Amino acid sequence: VIQVFTRRATATATAAASAGYGSFATATVDARVAGGVGPLRVGIGAGAKRSDGFNALADPAAYGYDADRDGYRGENVSADVALPLGVDHELGAKYLRNRLNAQYDGDPGFDNRTVTVVESWQFTSRDRFAAAWLSRLSAGEGSDDSVSKTAYGDYPFQTRQRQFAWQNEFTLPGRSSLVAGYERLDERIATDAAFAVTRRTTDSLLLVYQGRLDAHALQANLRHDDSSQYGSRTTGAIAYGYQVAPALRVAASYGTAFKAPSFNDLYYPGFSSPDLAPETATNVEGGVYGTTMLDQVTIEARVVGYRNRVRDLIVFQCDANYVCLPANVARATLEGATLGIDVRGAAIQLRASLDLAHPHDDATGNLLPRRARQHGVLGIDYRAAAWRAGAELVAAGERYDDAANRVRLPGYALVNLTAEWSALPSLTVYLRADNVFDRDYQLAAGYATGGATVQAGLRWRI
Q1: How far apart are CA 140 and CA 125, in angstroms?
Q2: What residues contact 37, with CB distance under 8 A and at least 6 apart?
Q3: Taking the complete model, does pTM exceed 0.90, yes or no?
Q4: Are 189 and 195 in contact (CB under 8 A)?
Q5: Are 158 and 174 in contact (CB under 8 A)?
Q6: SS3 for 364-420, per residue?
Q7: Residues of the chain with pLDDT > 70: what percent?
Q8: DSSP string of 45-108?
Q9: How many helices (H) and strands (E) does the chain have?
Q10: Contact in structure between 120 and 126 (CB atoms under 8 Å)
C-alpha cells in the first residue's frame, strides 16, 4: 500500500521545528511550514538525522565482525497541497522522499552499508455527492530503491508499485454505515534480474458494515483479493459488542486473513527466500472492558483473550553463521491474553499492560523465533504547570533466536525516563533517557542494542 506520511495542509499559517542531540553523536532536525494561498492550502517539510552509531555485531567470533561503529545518515522532504472546489469537493496531492545510508557488519574489514531511497506521490479527490455518500479517489506510485555495498560488489534492488483506490462511505438509517471500496495494486521489480515473478497485480474489493442498536454493536468485513501470483482469496471478519452496563462492555470477533510475501521477502539480495508461501490465518478474540470514575480519576481496565492459527507463518531468523532469511512455519498458533489498566487523574497518569502468550510451532511445540511468553509495560506520567516527567518499565521474558529453540535470548527489563519543560507557549525543551541502568540485552542473537542512551532537544511551534 502506498502511504505518504505528511500532515494535511491547513488554511491557517503554521510553522514547526525540532532539533535534538544525544548519545553516539545522534542528531535530528525537522521543520515544516503550512498555510493558504487563496483557497489553496500548502504544506512543506524537511528533515535530517545522523548518528555515529555503535558496533552492530556483539560477537567478535561472528563472520563479518568489524570493530567499527555502524551509524546512519538520513534526509527527507515532503509536500502536500489541497484545493477545495466548493463545500463538498476537494483535490489534493502529496509527495515524500526519504534517503537513508545505514552501515552494518557483513564482511570482515569492510564498511558494509545499504543506501535506500523511498519515494512516493499520490493524487486524491474527496467528493460528497450526496448527504449520505462520501467518495474518496486516489492514485499514486511508490518506489523503493536500495543498493547494498559489500566487499564483493554492489547489490541493487529496486521495486515500484502503483496503486489506484476508490472508497465510498454511505451513511445508513439509524446508527449504521457501509464502506465499499476497490483497489488495484501493481508491483514490479525494476532490477534487471531473472526472478521467477517480476510483476504482480492485485485487484481487491472491500465491504465494511458498522451498526449500533441500543446496547448492541456489530461490524462485518468482507474482502476479496485476486492476485496474478497467488490467485483469488476471500477473507472476512465479524465482531460483536454489548454494553452490559454503563461501566462494562464485552466484545468478541472471528476472522480470517491472508498475507502475500513481499518482493523483499522473496528476492532481496542475501536476505530472502524465493520459495516462500503466503500466510493464511483464522483468529478468534474476546474481551471484557470496564470504565469507572473515582474522585475525578478515570480508571479503564481490560482483559482480552485471543487464539490465532496461521498456516505458512513468515518468520525471520538467523543461522549459526549469521545468515538471516525469512522462512515459513507450516502451522503455528499464537494464543494468549492481554491485561491492561489505565488510570488518569488531573496530574498523574498510570498505565500498565501484561501480555501472556504461547506463540508456538504446532509440529514441534517450540516457541516461534524471537517471541516471548511474557511482555509487560508499566508507566507513569506527572504534570505540574509547565513541567512533565515520566518513567517507564519495559520487560520481556526469554525468547529463542531460532526455530529449533537452541539459541536462547535471555529476558530483560529496561527503565526509560522522560522530562519536558514548556519554556514558552511555543517552545518545549525535552530530555529522554532510555535503558538508564545500561542493561545488556539482545533482540537478535549476536547483535548489540547500544546500552544506555540520552537525547535532549527543542520543539518549537506557532
Answers
A1: 12
A2: none
A3: no
A4: yes
A5: no
A6: CCCECCCCCCEEEEEEEEEEECCEEEEEEEEEECCEECCCCCCCEECCEEEEEEEEE
A7: 97
A8: EEEEEEEEEE-SB--TTSTT--SS-EEEEEEEEEEEEEEE-SSSEEEEEEEEEEEEEEE---ST
A9: 1, 24
A10: no
What is the rounded CA–CA span in Å between residue 287 and residue 217? 14
322 — pLDDT class (breaks 50, 70, 90): low
Task: Look at the chain and count its residues.
Answer: 462
Three cell numbers at 240?
460483536
- Could you report the per-residue pLDDT of 186-227, keeping only the tens digit for each? 999 988 778 889 999 999 999 999 999 999 999 999 999 999
Burial pattern 308-327, b for ≥16 Cβ within 10 A else e, equals bbbbbbbbebbeeebeebbe
CA 156, CA 148: separation in Å to the nearest integer? 6
What is the C-alpha separation between 66 and 59, in angstroms, rounded? 10
- The C-alpha cell at 255 is 476472522
Q: Which amino acid is at 71?
A: G
